[in-house]
């Protein structure tokens, strides 16, 4: 498909590229995004041979002499240059055409000469005056063909008359030699004005439709128009926000705008209030951020733990070490992929009642079996990425771990159905917590064995189980002692709304935590008919990825929900249909109790809704990634309203600048332009 006619009928683009376009090009064309300077380099124009009279500054055009022979003796002819074509020629080749008089255009067409040859490239004043009369128009296909035909005739005339050009040049050069020399001397003395090809900000480089190419805000209503403005500081080059109705400080040296830090004030204000301050060195803000991070010197204990973890291969025994320090070492060596069957021996002790291994990828089946052999008193065992665990290892756990009450397995792809059934029949009533993720062999029979033999289960967490469907929810409804229920990422359309409603109505009265992450087929009936009347004690609610939930359903859930005292954790990540009213209802109901809020991906939220987060005075962690309305004003209000706020994640929030409000102990993750030192993360 030709790029010249894609999506814009009657519009001619400058780059004559033919062929299939990419997805990015199609997206940019649909949104009306154009380059600021789409004009390609002009092709070389035929030039006549130079004369022998040392008149290098004014070569004469044979075409022009043929068109107007009477004027060849009085005035120098316009020049053709292969390296620098005339201004009208560049404008004719695709976008803006000069408005010439009708008589001139008709006479040129009659002589077979293009209008482009009437422009004198050395006369800058006339070029600037012509630029004011240019108007952006859309060129039709017929006009384009006519321009091409005229240009072809011009080149043909130049080629045919090349033999006689030397005689014409010789006759005219003697008559105009004095004028040419004077004009050449004047052109050398005065500087050349900027041409259209030199100035990217010229109006000629606007889009062919007459508008400057720019990317607009994707949705309406996210940000009030004309509220704030983001500019760059003239000293430290950091971005900062100018609030509506205020005037930023001005640098006395160069007249540029100053951010609050460089101006010495807490917020942008009039320049007369700016304190006199010496000009800092270049990029002082980045250096200050780096110094602030590096000044967070770790404790001696952390340094020792880091040293031990880096030299774990040379350590023979830990000796007397706390469980917290042991867990830190295990995290570090798991991140470094140093946890194997040999280093595992350092974490095995008969005195341990809880063991967490964060990466069992390099641990063999024999090494996993040693866990039950050297730690027979374990009550809680958590194995992550345990793809090498086999049925024989699980049988060994069942025989030797006689005090086990909690088990978490992530990625046990080799364990079969009958091994799970044997485990549940053995542990029976002492089993309290069970978590399973990433298993394609955990079946309906296994979940029935769990619910029949382990009635005291309080925490049940199932995620990424390929065989999960509505049949699993019926036996789970018999676990009346459940306090935490997590169902993550079932197969699409495997869990339906009526089955989930029955489950929550059966076990919801005792639930303190409910997670339905990735259940994208659920509708508002789960909120209105199940969670609202049943989950009166719930404190943590995770509905991330439930794309079918609407703003009306969330409003109905939280409005006048008096039986619930308030939530401490709310996750609405990627609930793309929710708008301002949903967040307002959440903060109105649970503003005094909320400690963690996740709004990532809620692109419809505007600034008015984000301002209601100031009700959350106990807020400790906020994830507002890809919420484009987040800006410096909202951050400033949150810092003032929530003194316990410790972490804010703002990936993709381009309105949040480096000069936004912060304080000691507050970590802002994902802000553009921040210096990040991975050593202390």
UniProtKB/TrEMBL annotation:
Family matches, as Gene3D superfamilies? Ribonuclease Inhibitor
Query: Gene Ontology terms, cellular component aspect?
Result: SCF ubiquitin ligase complex
Record InterPro entries: FBXL15_LRR, Leu-rich_rpt_Cys-con_subtyp, LRR_dom_sf
Query: In what residue span(s) does the F-box/LRR-repeat protein 15-like leucin rich repeat domain sit?
Result: 399-615
* Compositional bias segments (type: Polar residues): 8-28, 98-109
Q: Where is this region: Disordered?
A: 1-134, 157-224
Superkingdom: Eukaryota
Concerning PANTHER family, the annotation shows: PARTNER OF PAIRED, ISOFORM B-RELATED
Name listed for the protein in its UniProt record = F-box/LRR-repeat protein 15-like leucin rich repeat domain-containing protein
